Amino acid sequence: MPSRALVLLAPGFEEIEAVAIIDVLRRADVEVTVAAGAAGPVEGSHGIRVTADQELARLSGSDFDVVVLPGGQPGTKNLEQDPRVRKLLAEADGAGRRIAAICAAPRVLQGAGLLAGRRATSHPSVRADLSGVSYSEDRVVNDGRLTTSRGPGTAIEFALRLVEQLCGPEKAAELARAMLVA
Predict the structure, then answer these.
(1) How many domains in the chain?
(2) Is the pTM value of this prediction over 0.70?
């Protein structure tokens, strides 16, 4: 059975991050579900629309191997303000699933109480918002089941790290070579 990933979108998401993550995971044969608060297309921060597969209310975080949050503004603020997102993250965390966030989205994890005492990174613009975190400026940071990354320029590296975690280092290396990343 393939690994399952849930990618959460909110209006104003960062398009490069979302599409790179979805694309790389699907290239690795990970079953990716893209979810949003409502049916229909979701507009990113640069006017690109992506259609979600499911509505947030119909899903449980425990049903996925990883829950992934792209950043962007105001997408991150919209994710932070949605109680369904906090519920999905709590379900995933409670079930021992992986959680991943890039760019400004680690703020969502901070608000959900998932970063305290953890090692993480983010876009520099939200670093001050991550209190109680062992902050790193590495491009991608792993701390147990938590993976964080810095921004659009690290999106493919971040996605490949998720592939490594879900499918193994051989699959991640194979994709990196095929995409001319390595």
Answers:
(1) 1
(2) yes
